[in-house]
TrEMBL record:
GO terms for biological process: anatomical structure morphogenesis; homophilic cell adhesion via plasma membrane adhesion molecules. The chain crosses the membrane at residues 687-710. It comes from the Eukaryota. PANTHER family: CADHERIN-87A (PTHR24028), PROTOCADHERIN ALPHA-C2-RELATED (PTHR24028:SF57). Potential calcium-dependent cell-adhesion protein. May be involved in the establishment and maintenance of specific neuronal connections in the brain. Gene3D superfamilies: Cadherins. The gene is LOC112256130. One of its GO terms (cellular component) is plasma membrane. GO terms for molecular function: calcium ion binding. SUPFAM superfamilies: Cadherin-like. Residues 1-23 form the signal peptide. Keywords: Calcium, Cell adhesion, Cell membrane, Glycoprotein, Membrane, Repeat, Signal, Transmembrane, Transmembrane helix. This is Cadherin domain-containing protein. It comes from Oncorhynchus tshawytscha.
């Protein structure tokens, strides 16, 4: 609904201050404008778009307790909310009266300074403090003598205040109008003709005060003049006007000055009494005291330079004659300013929370400063006495911008208490402070961080599936969803198996688990990566390398591979009875597929027929004679050897060796031929030799035939048959003393099998992985054996 408004805009002043200073827009309106009256169109005057103004927050900050004005956002008009009474708004008698206000517009933030000048209208009539004025005038008063009259008071200013006075018709009196330094009109009653009490004892006059308004207004007072008998000498001051200075906040009782008036009369007519005249304002009389007997003027109230910069006192000296006479003077008291007002800080606009990645140069707050003092006492300086990433930028004489000067980091400092200090230029200077608290909001600017970049985790073989291996926890200094981490394994294939089939990780806490049981003899280590990713937008992540080492366990029993025998059977060996002391009788070789300590094997006799006859090397398994055989020693010796590893607990295996002794001749011949497993020993030596020679010849013939047949056949791919016991016996003496089987992977391979097949010594065993190598060391040079290898066996090849 359209409302009709009366628009009063007497004067519009617009000042544009370029650079860092703020613009001040000035308007002028008469007082007592009706509510709803439009003062001005701010949108047009300030260059604002009405379309954008409707969506922005507009706030009017009026420097007064009442809200006289407001803004219509749709039209941008500044209108009257409450009638403005100039006399109420500006209590001092000055022609200039301003109402200061700030127009604050958000998004973006802009502040406009408005000064609204209030012009006076003639809405108050002059009036006198007293309706009846009584004067005592001596009949001896001469023409031209003046009598002070109370001046009329008019709250209006300028031409609307008291302009002149009018006196009713009288042949004895007239009036003389004077103008004070502040423009106030004073009136004196002037005697124009000598008085005759006997003719006319009382004169009744009417004094009228008229203002200069259009139309003018007036006020009246009755003057009663009583004619007294003569006292012809009035007191007199040496000067008509005195000037003196006093410091504000002077203590009560401080002497301002001492007046001294003289009277040429004698006696009671010369005794003088001092008093303030009616020209002296009540406020002045409240601040200063006048001793009626001595004429001393002292301080009796508070003197405030900011309230009143000077005072005028009109003093009269009256004698004590029967008809007292008086003299008058004017005293002008100037107030000297002192630094008695603290500067003040006002936060105009303020952001309490910002993102930690706020750009450098962003305005955080707009701060205003003020000081009621003047001169150097009113000069102010605003500063920050802290090491903080903020600076102050002076945008005008009394406004500062608080600006971000360095990059902020919430993880280092989550909030700032910024204390602003303002000091004035007085001596001593006064100061004030204001603290602004700024909270930083988190952004996802920190990637998760592991305590280590590389983790080595030992895992004992034969672990249970699902066993916890370790907890890999990363740390993210961000907050809320920016610090919520998710863990996962970066996929990687290992020998046709993905890493996720071997290990799993809890995505919430980083616990790493094994999904299968590991065997050290098959797999020894794994390398893979684990990534930790936060839940920010965009997410940040980091990864860590994990090295899983499978630790060996003593889970494999030593296996005796030499002397070879069918599982559970007894190994039978034949040695010559003439064997010398220290000769190698047999060699026990055991292997253990474990590693390091678990694969170190020692040998001991578990049982022995004659402990004085044989010795066993505990490290290499050599069985040697400790002395020569005697005729009393049994022909059959039984040895039980135990091979024990070094694990905890230790595992072991045993082998039983049955030794049979024979005469030297038989032994020498048996080195070239195979001999039967058992033969009887006859007491007659001749019969023994015949049988032995026949057996050797027979075996030699069989060996030649078998060798010819095997050379004519191709090698069979199928598993070879176990070698005959006699073949092992015949080969033992030439190879067992020098052959030692070891592994470059530092562990023994189980199920070792050696055989002679078509001129080849074949070493067979299960192979854990492709590319394994086995070394047969200390072979007799005379054999001429060479080594070849494949994934199934390592073959020692005789030369052609």
């Amino acid at each position: 609904m359209h409302r009709e408004r009366r628009v009063f805009s007497a004067v519009f002043v617009f000042c544009a201050l370029w650079g860092s200073a703020l613009s001040v827009t000035r308007y002028s309106i008469p007082e007592e404008m009706e509510r709803g009256s439009v003062v001005a169109n701010l949108a047009a005057d300030l260059g604002l778009e009405l379309a954008g103004l409707a969506h922005r927050e507009v706030k009017l900050d009026i420097f007064h307790s009442k809200k006289f004005l407001d803004v219509i956002k749709k039209t941008g008009e500044l209108y009257i909310v409450e009638k403005i009474d100039r006399e109420y708004l500006c209590t001092t008698k000055t022609t200039d009266c301003f109402l200061k206000l700030d127009v604050i517009i958000e998004s973006p933030l802009r502040i406009f300074n408005i000064e609204l000048g209030i012009t006076d209208i003639n809405d108050n009539a002059p009036h006198f403090r007293r309706d009846r004025i009584e004067l005592d005038v001596s009949e001896s008063a001469t023409a031209g003598e003046k009598f002070s009259l109370p001046n009329a008071v008019d709250p209006d200013v300028g031409i609307n205040t008291v302009k002149t006075y009018q006196l009713s018709a009288s042949e004895h009196f007239t009036i003389e109008i004077q103008t004070g330094s502040d423009g106030t009109k004073y009136v004196d009653l002037v005697l124009t003709k000598a008085l005759d009490r006997e003719e006319h004892a009382v004169h009744n006059l009417i004094l009228t005060a008229v203002d200069g308004g259009i139309p003018s207004q007036s006020g009246t007072a009755n003057i009663v003049v009583r004619v007294l008998d003569t006292n012809d000498n009035a007191p007199r001051f040496d000067r008509s006007v005195y000037s003196v200075n006093v410091t504000e906040n002077s203590a009560i009782g401080t002497l301002v000055m001492k007046l001294n008036a003289t009277d040429l009369d004698e006696g009671s007519n010369a005794d003088i009494k001092y008093s303030f005249t009616l020209y002296t304002s009540e406020k002045t009389q409240y601040v200063f005291a006048l001793n009626p007997n001595t004429g001393e003027i002292t301080v009796k109230g508070t003197i405030d330079y900011e309230d009143m910069k000077f005072y005028e006192m009109h003093v009269e000296a009256k004698d004590k004659g029967q008809h007292p006479l008086l003299g008058q003077c004017k005293i002008v008291v100037g107030v000297t300013d002192t630094n008695d007002n603290y500067p003040e800080i006002t936060v105009k606009s303020y952001k309490s929370t910002v993102n930690e990645n706020i750009p450098v140069g962003t305005v955080i707050a707009i701060v205003g400063i003020s000081d009621r003092d003047t001169g150097d006492n009113g000069k102010m300086n605003l500063s920050i006495n802290q090491q903080v990433p903020f600076v102050l930028h002076k945008s005008s004489d009394f406004l500062y911008e608080l600006i971000v000067s360095e990059t902020l980091d919430r993880e280092k400092v989550p909030e700032y208490d910024i204390t602003l200090f303002v000091t004035d230029g007085g001596r001593p200077s006064l100061s004030d402070n204001e603290t602004i608290t700024l909270h930083l909001l988190d952004v996802n600017d920190n990637a998760p961080l592991f305590p280590q970049s590389f983790y080595t985790i030992p895992v004992m073989e034969n672990n249970a599936p699902g066993a916890l291996l370790s907890s890999l926890t990363a740390f993210d200094p961000d907050l809320h969803e920016n610090q919520y981490l998710v863990y996962f394994i970066i996929e990687k294939e290992i020998v046709n198996t993905s890493i996720s089939m071997l290990f799993s990780i809890n995505p919430e806490n980083g616990n790493l688990y094994a999904l299968k049981t590991f065997d050290y003899e098959i797999e020894k280590e794994f390398f893979f990566h684990i990534e930790a990713r936060d839940s920010g937008v965009p997410p940040l992540s980091s990864n860590v390398t994990v090295h899983i080492i499978i630790v060996d366990q003593n889970d494999n029993t030593p296996v005796i591979v030499s002397p070879w025998r069918v599982h559970g059977s007894v190994v039978e060996e034949k040695i010559p009875r003439s064997t010398d002391k220290g000769s190698l009788v047999s060699k026990v070789i055991a292997i253990d597929t474990d590693s390091v300590q678990n694969s170190r094997i020692t040998y001991q006799f578990l049982q022995v027929t004659d402990a004085t006859l044989f010795s066993l090397d505990q490290y290499n398994g050599d069985i040697r004679t400790m002395r020569m055989f005697s005729y009393r020693d049994p022909r059959h010796q039984r040895l039980v050897v135990i091979a024990k590893d070094n694990g905890e607990p230790a595992l072991s295996a045993t082998v039983t060796i049955k030794l049979s002794t024979a005469e030297t001749a038989v032994k020498a011949y048996s080195d070239m031929t195979e001999v039967p497993l058992e033969y009887d020993i006859f007491s007659e030596l001749n019969l023994y030799l015949v049988i032995g020679l026949g057996s050797v010849s027979f075996l030699l013939l069989i060996t030649i035939l078998v060798t010819c047949v095997l050379k004519c056949q191709k090698p069979m791919p199928s598993k070879a048959a176990p070698p005959s016991r006699n073949s092992v016996i015949s080969e033992r003496n030439s190879t067992i003393a020098d052959s030692t089987l070891v592994s470059n992977d530092a562990y023994w391979y189980s199920m070792f099998l050696a055989e002679t097949r078509k001129g080849k010594l074949v070493v067979r065993q299960p192979v854990p992985k492709a590319g394994s190598r086995y070394i047969v060391s200390s072979l007799p040079r005379s054999t001429g054996l060479t080594e070849t290898s494949d994934s199934a066996a390592s073959t020692l090849q005789y030369p052609k």
